[in-house]
Amino acid sequence: MEIFDGGSGGGRKIKFNKKFNWIGYLVLALILVIIAGVLSLGLITDYIWMDSLDYAGVFTTILSSKILLAVAGFILFAAGTFFTLYWIRRSYMKHFDPNQLPPILLRRKAIIFIMIGISAIIGLFGSSVIQGIGWERTLKFLNHVSFGQTDPYFDMDISFYVYVLPFLKFIVFVLLGLSVFFLLLEIGAYSVFQMYRLSRSAQMHLGTTLGVIGLLLAANHVLQPFETLSTNQVNLFQQSVVTGLSYTDDLINVPKAYILAAVAIIMTIWMIVALVRGRLRSVVVPIAVYVGLAIIGQGASIVVQNFIVSPNEFSKEKPYLEDDLSYTKAAYDLDSIEERQHPGNKSLTQEMVERNSGTIDNVRMNDSRPLLDVYNQLQTFRTYYEFNDVDIDRYKIDGDYEQVFLGARELNTTDLPSQAKTWVNQNLRYTHGYGLAMSHVNQVTPQGQPEYMLKNLPPEGSMDVERPQIYFGEEPYKNVIVNSKVEEFDYPSGDENVDTRFKANTGISLSGINRLLFALNEGSFRMLISDQVTSDSQLLDTRNIMDRVNRIAPFFTYDQDPYLVVRDDGSIVWMLDAYLTAESYPYSEAFQGETNYIRNSVKVSIDAYTGEVNFYIAEPDDPLMQTFRNIFPDLFTEDIPEDIKAHFRYPEKLFTVQASMYGTYHMSDLEVFYNREDFWQFPTEKYFNEDTTMDPYYTTLKLPNQDEEEFILMIPYTPKNRQNMIAWMGVRNDGDNYGDIFVYRFPKQRNIYGPQQIENRINQDSEISQELNLWSQGGSEVIRGNLLAIPIEDTVLYVEPIYIESNNETSLPEVKRVVLAYGDQIVMEANFDKALEEMLKTVDPKTEDEGEQGDQEDDKPDSSQPIIGAEEQLQEFSDLFKDYKQALSSGDWQKAAEIMDELEGMLDNETKVPAPDNPELSNDKGKNSNATESSSDQKTAKDKE
After folding, report:
1. pTM for this structure?
2. In total, how many domains does the chain have?
3. 681 and 795: one domain?
4. Separation CA 912–CA 883 (nearest Å)
5. What does the pLDDT look like over 200-257, one tens digit per residue?
6. Same domain (yes/no): 263, 327
7. Could you tell me which of 216, 227, 211 has the C-alpha nearest to residue 173?
8. Beta strand pairing status for 636-637 and 613-617?
9. What is the DSSP letter of 192?
10. Domain range holding 283?
11. Per the CB 3.0–4.6 Å rule, which of 259, 486, 634, 913 could disulfide with 57?
């Protein structure tokens, strides 16, 4: 190889040895290999990870579609760019003298090389855009199934709007955007010395690009009428009351779109002819006509909407409102909802309570938010354990159907002491959480704490947990290595720690080349060289369950509240709901952004120990589900284990969307629907001392005409701007009835108290509010729990737990009172059973009579033993009780407690009355059952006197 240096004495040849030439090529090749390796490393490790979960087919399907689209996008953008640049250069070469051009344009090989480079860069950009945005639309388009239903205007199957129309719009907009880019490039190039006036080649180039743009505009206008079926926008400034085709769309916008499409084609032909003939001024004519017609179309739409539709809107929109109503119901699966009448009677009796003992026994006395604090303080035992969430579910415990709270005790190594945050500890030793806590929803201890069904380490209680280790969960886990030479920490036991080893084979083997690949991927040199890692070691990758399912199937929308399930074999799995959504369902009102169709057709389970993921088909008839099954046949599991199916929960998010839409779309009368006369909304409640919109909640009920209690997700309704309860919606969760939605309507001619009305009545009750205020002033915080409406046969009970929490960082919220509201009556007692007993005495005379009869029998003096000193004892009781009341009124809790202790001792000795559960929280108004018993005993004694 020879080159010339630039010396003044003439060119001097410098010779390079061929050996150095080959070294250069080798270095270049090595650099290219390294770059390719870095770019492909992620793909290789992703494939290995997906293959370890048996989802390699999903990975290859997505990757192959992206590669094909990337190639197509690269060719389209690169070829178009090169063609444009080549035509521009040719026009320059024809129009200018070579002496007038830059030297680079005259060097053919060099300029071709530069144009190829620029085209490649634009091609890479286009490749990224098309494969990134278009792969899912393309796969859906190629594999879609029919909905079996057509729209009422164009008579097209719904699948056209959901799958075909988005794909066509994507193609048109990509090509239109690319063409506009080329046009701007050409305008800039041909503005030099006004080439667009003088160069025939430049004019032809501009004409060709304008022609393509015109055809694409025409195609866009042809698609616009179909888009009117999924929007309420009738022009740039106005919206219709109808979602979907409206009167203005039918009269103006649809014909306007076809007219503009025709004008765009005519405009294209006109401009090409004008440019060929050199009549540049006439090019402006079709553009002006097109823009003018577009403006006229907008104006016509505004005029029709203002002067024809608005004065008589219901009459004009009536046929379109009917489609809006029926298709929105179909999109949200509301058309199968069964409506029933609820009398809202005040018929609560002791017999009714006994008939519905399963419902009564499952009334929730705890809320998940304060319960999470309790779990984290009483059931973590070490700083590195953490309960991330508390879930609600139902189990058969000793043959009884019971609703429970449960949470996973997960590991959070960020809370390890700083000296313990070594590479070995964080990657090899501290690898998993351990066990769970489970508690009754309806039982609390005398101290107001949850009554546990599972607790401690190892888990002990009502069921066997055979595999309590939690390697995969909700925490932001790092990847860890198991089966190394380091024993894994399992759980603390006294002063020692119990160790374990991972016994599954679901991780990524670190033998052979895998160790190098994943060490590079993790950026961990220690993983590569550590003698603690062996060929038997496994890498547990992507341990956060949300990240895990999103990495496997990113095309679903996942619920953000996974919940824990203990299977029959004692293993623990996470359950997660996946939503399938669409944005172009005709005539359907959107609930979020442009999304106007939703189904929960897929349930996902993630084993907390092995990390195995299963996607179960929950709604096989859903067309979106069938389309995804066509795309990814290896993704789904059709056979659902019974112990998994038994814990399917209807998701709160889906139910909230459906219930919200039904608040409007329950109206079947079109005029009522148009005026929104009977609009229902979610009620408000006081929760954690703030007024907030009530969320749906799970409860256990026995529905009318049913023999057993069921797990129900429900929400009350109130009318717009009113607080009385107008209806409630529920959905069944058990067995073959899963997903059945029903609505109970209350009579409109009389008031049925709504949640906020009950909250206001609690606030206005002088005795309850006085007691709550006293607690607040005593250095504690009063926390109002969720107010639950509990339907029982033909009546409704309201229940609200009251928490007390002292004002310090280590305090625990404790359930100290339960408020029960029924009809016009409100009682507050130490627990639900006492509150219900007091309520029944008020509303059920038979119960009160029986109670009085029992009291009279108990109060009869023993004739065999004379009453000695009764008058003096009664006077002493009376004086002590007056002192107790005065201490309470002044807020002297310590003195009140001392007096109550003295009263208890006297009562135990003389009357054998049981001691109260929480004497320091009793008051003189009878809200505390013990105080009531004391005063009642006084009254009885006085009566005896």
Report:
1. 0.85
2. 4
3. yes
4. 22
5. 888 888 888 988 999 999 999 999 999 999 999 999 999 999 999 999 999 999 999 9
6. yes
7. 216
8. parallel
9. G
10. 199-331
11. 634
